[in-house]
Amino acid sequence: MALLWDASGVSELDSQSRSLQSLYSWFAEGKLSVNRRYQRKLVWTLEEKQKLIESVLKQYPVPAILLAEKGDDGYEIIDGLQRLHALMSFMETEFETGDGRRFDVSRFATAQTRADEGIFEIEGGELLTPREVSAILDYNMPVSVMRGASESEIDDVFARINTYGHRLSDQERRQAGVQDKFAGMVRELACDVRGDVSSDVLDLGDMPSISVDLPMTRHGYDVVAADVFWVQQGILRSTDLRDSMDEQCIADVAASIIGGSLLERSKEALDAIYEAGSVENLRISAALDTHGVAKFKSEFAYCIDEIRKICEAGGDKKLRSIIFAKGNTNAFPSVFAVMMIALHEALIVGGQMIADYAGVKKAITGLYDRLETSRASTAP
After folding, report:
1. Residues 20, 90: contact at Cβ < 8 Å?
2. Are the C-beta atoms of residues 274 and 174 closer than 8 Å to each other?
3. Are 79 and 146 in contact (CB under 8 A)?
4. Which residue in 192, 247, 315, 347 is deepest, having the highest Cβ count within 10 Å?
5. What Rg do the C-alpha atoms of the chain give, in angstroms?
6. Across residues 141-148, what is the average pLDDT?
7. DSSP letter at 344?
8. What is the CA angle 360-311-257, rounded to 5?
9. Which letter does DSSP use for residue 123 in this model?
10. What angle do CA 313, 318, 324 make, to 5 degrees?
11. pLDDT digits over 29-73, tens only?
């Protein structure tokens, strides 16, 4: 066991190998949890999952798992969420190996008991050999456990881990660990619009309920990208939803409305708002305190509902098909943000109401193309 920090810290890091059989027991007992405050959704492709299983079968080394010990005899996953879920779900026959074979649950009593209790359904097909099942169960996974860590220490460790490479999108990195009212409100609004509202801390086994099922992957996750407002209306692509671009769009809109001026569309502008103690962070936080979180959430939801009604008036049509007359398949979060801000100004600040949704739909039909033509004609 080693100290995780210097003499000023108190966290201890317990590093040792644990068999996948023992990790599955923790999983089955509900001891492995995920904190939505900083963790992303499930994003691995089937191929990535299969490569991990292949590495385990070949007894190749895989990256360590990092957990934080919690007071209730459980563990919060800090690093290794994708790996852990892939391994646990394979042991519950959710996917096949690259050569089309599944885990043989009958040779692992703990998993068989869960199946018998109806916790998961065993998928049929060709199975791994008894030797291969044993190789998986006995595989020693390197696991490090942070003991006595505070939330701020966990946040710091997570941020440091994800400083390297490009494992998180810009918005996932911004939201990770941030606990102020603005970040919390953005998370809540994103969940409301997607329809994956849940508690902040989830059991590892519940991760499919908040994860995005893409058209080409079809993992069986509960959030079907094609059914979510952002993708339904063509505002974002399915892959954008997986990478939390919906949260970034909400953050742009919220910061512009609450802050009283259109936010510059740049990575740096949003970074500044999420940077604890920065001038922009303090400004937006103070403005949100004045506006009120509940009030803004209600206003945002109202504007979204009005956009839905506009699109449905006189025959359902995607917002993208309305605004772009010349068939366009690109995402348009910036155009949508401007539309949301304009609606908020008219409906909420101005106290107006839409009496003719079909008329509004007609007025904005081809709007982007008209603006582009106008801009081109006035250019020097």
Report:
1. no
2. yes
3. no
4. 247
5. 24
6. 92
7. I
8. 70
9. -
10. 110
11. 999 999 887 777 888 889 999 999 999 999 999 999 999 998 777
Nearest to residue 111, comparing CAs of 81, 90, 138?
Answer: 90
How far apart CA 65 and CA 49 sit, in angstroms, is 16
User: Residues in the chain, how many?
Assistant: 380
Mind listing the pLDDT tens digit for each residue in 252-297?
Answer: 999 999 999 888 878 899 999 988 889 999 999 999 999 999 999 9
Exposure string over 248-272, b if 16+ CB within 10 A, otherwise e: bbbbbbbbbbbbeeebeeeeeebeb
Residues 6+ positions from 175 with CB-CB distance below 8 Å? 37, 38, 183, 186, 187, 244, 247, 274
CA distance 75 to 25: 13
d(CA 136, CA 111): 13
For residues 71-100, give the mean pLDDT: 93
Amino acid identity at 100: G
Alpha-carbon gap, residue 126 to 296, rounded angstroms: 53
Task: Tell me which DSSP letter residue 102 carries.
Answer: B
pTM of full prediction above 0.90 = no
* Residue 231 to residue 92: CA distance in whole angstroms: 31
Query: And the tokens for 365?
Result: 């039909």
The two tokens of residue 88 are 């646990």
- Return the amino acid letter for 16: Q
DSSP string of 167-195, one letter each residue: -S-HHHHHHTT--SHHHHHHHHHHHHHHT
Name the nearest CA neighbour of 11 among 2, 19, 24, 22. Answer: 2
The pLDDT assigned to 162 comes to 67
**CA of residue 225 relative to chain centroid, distance:** 12
For 329, the token pair is 């398949």
